[in-house]
């Protein structure tokens, strides 16, 4: 049982904050379940706490399993048996113990609540293992909002049917099997990809806990091949141009193609088409039943573009050993020259982010029938420019620890959202021309100043090619 205990402790070791919060919520739910023996209505609140705790716990557990279930791990004696015992302990902790307290309390629909706990655990585990099928729960919520009367009738029938609980248990079992089957299958790993790629197809979504790559389905593999062909085509074009006319600009273009393989025009167009298709489907599902302030679309577009820069911080850390080859290939005269080449190459992310934010905002304004699309576009362009400069600067020279990067990114997101809504109000109060001038003067000057100081600091530092610890 010592091996099972060590497996159970992995979540506490790797994600201690999540484990502590989940356990506190679980204990709160169990205490409420004990109180529910006096008042059965309290049991629903207690099981709600347990369900939330189970959701977060199993997301972390799925990430741990994705790092533990490597091909070499199966050489350990009895590894599969230990994993099975870990599953038994998990079921006892998150299903059997709350279920016993629930039976003692005796609230209505107790069996459905226990089955719901199993489904929540299965969804969390699937999400932690990188199986996006768990996100299908959002399709259920969208469908329920689309046809609320039918959803209400289905819920009423399900609560009264004795087959609902067994059906939920069966769905949970199938979901767990679907999530764990790739982890228990011994197979060759996929070809390593660039940590700075931006295909958004799940290849680079592995947890920071390990270097294990997420197992991809046929759809993701097909999309990955499209992006890889676009990256290869762009690299060959840049290489041919450099061979015909060697220059500093051509060398910089080659470095950009190597560092940022999916930030070429073909890949950008493909990514915009994919996002546009998903956005159109969402709007067709919800626009007939609800209306919202179209300005939210611009804020969400800026938020999506900001999500790229945390990947820059993580990716540059992981690429350090590989960047030694790039340093030797470029053979710079000084270390500052090499650092400047890196800074100039990564600067491409700023116009790419602004273009992406404008494209998302334009698409959203058309679908949402925005009354003031120009106001949204101008605000998004100015805020995306300044926010991208600040984010690039901070993640280039900022903290290397995951907690520090997360805290900095949180501040950046709140700052960008505040700048967007303040700028949107400013353009409405002072007019497009004067409002844009005032907003741009404040935000872009701030972003430019931060970027100028950051790139000077980065050029002053010595290049590092050691692999990050942990």
From TrEMBL:
Q: Which UniProt keywords apply?
A: Membrane, Transmembrane, Transmembrane helix
Presence of the UniProt keyword Lipoprotein in the record: no
Q: Where are the transmembrane segments?
A: 12-36, 42-62, 83-104, 110-128, 135-151, 163-180, 267-285, 291-310, 345-368, 374-394, 406-427, 433-454
Presence of the UniProt keyword Transmembrane helix in the record = yes
Where does the source fall among the domains of life? Bacteria
Leader sequence range is none
Q: What is this protein called?
A: Uncharacterized protein
Native source species: Dyella marensis
């Amino acid at each position: 049982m010592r091996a099972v205990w060590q497996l159970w402790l992995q979540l506490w070791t790797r994600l201690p904050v999540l484990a502590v919060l989940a356990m506190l919520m679980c204990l709160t739910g169990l205490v409420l379940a004990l109180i529910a023996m006096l008042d059965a209505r309290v049991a629903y609140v207690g099981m709600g706490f347990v369900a939330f705790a189970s959701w977060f716990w199993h997301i972390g557990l799925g990430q741990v399993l994705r790092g533990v279930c490597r091909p070499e791990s199966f050489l350990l004696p009895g590894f599969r048996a230990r994993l099975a015992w870990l599953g038994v302990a998990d079921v006892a902790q998150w299903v059997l113990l709350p279920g016993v307290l629930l039976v003692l309390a005796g609230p209505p629909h107790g069996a459905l609540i226990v089955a719901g706990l199993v489904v929540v655990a299965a969804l969390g585990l699937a999400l932690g293992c990188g199986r996006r099928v768990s996100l299908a729960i959002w399709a259920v919520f969208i469908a329920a909002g689309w046809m609320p009367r039918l959803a209400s009738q289905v819920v009423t029938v399900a609560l009264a049917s004795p087959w609902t609980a067994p059906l939920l248990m069966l769905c949970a079992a199938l979901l767990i099997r679907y999530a764990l089957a790739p982890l228990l299958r011994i197979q060759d790993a996929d070809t390593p990809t660039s940590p700075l790629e931006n295909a958004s197809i799940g290849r680079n979504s592995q947890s920071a806990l390990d270097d294990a790559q997420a197992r991809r389905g046929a759809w993701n593999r097909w999309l990955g091949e499209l992006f890889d062909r676009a990256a290869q085509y762009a690299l060959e074009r840049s290489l041919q141009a450099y061979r015909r006319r060697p220059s500093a600009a051509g060398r910089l273009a080659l470095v950009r193609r190597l560092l940022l393989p999916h930030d070429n025009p073909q890949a950008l167009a493909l990514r915009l088409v994919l996002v546009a298709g998903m956005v159109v489907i969402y709007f067709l599902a919800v626009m007939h039943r609800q209306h919202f302030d179209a300005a939210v679309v611009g804020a969400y577009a800026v938020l999506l573009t900001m999500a790229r820069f945390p990947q820059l911080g993580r990716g540059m850390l992981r690429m350090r050993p590989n960047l030694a080859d790039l340093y030797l290939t470029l053979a710079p005269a000084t270390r500052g020259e090499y650092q400047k080449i890196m800074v100039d190459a990564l600067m491409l992310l700023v116009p790419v982010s602004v273009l992406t934010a404008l494209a998302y905002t334009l698409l959203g304004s058309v679908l949402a029938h925005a009354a003031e699309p120009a106001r949204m576009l101008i605000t998004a362009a100015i805020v995306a420019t300044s926010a991208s400069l600040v984010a690039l600067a901070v993640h280039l020279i900022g903290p290397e620890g995951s907690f520090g990067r997360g805290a900095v990114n949180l501040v950046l997101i709140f700052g960008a959202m505040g700048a967007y809504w303040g700028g949107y109000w400013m353009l409405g109060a002072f007019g497009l021309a004067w409002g844009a001038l005032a907003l741009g003067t404040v935000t872009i000057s701030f972003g430019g100043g931060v970027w100028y100081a950051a790139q000077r600091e980065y050029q002053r530092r010595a290049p590092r090619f050691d692999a990050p610890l942990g």
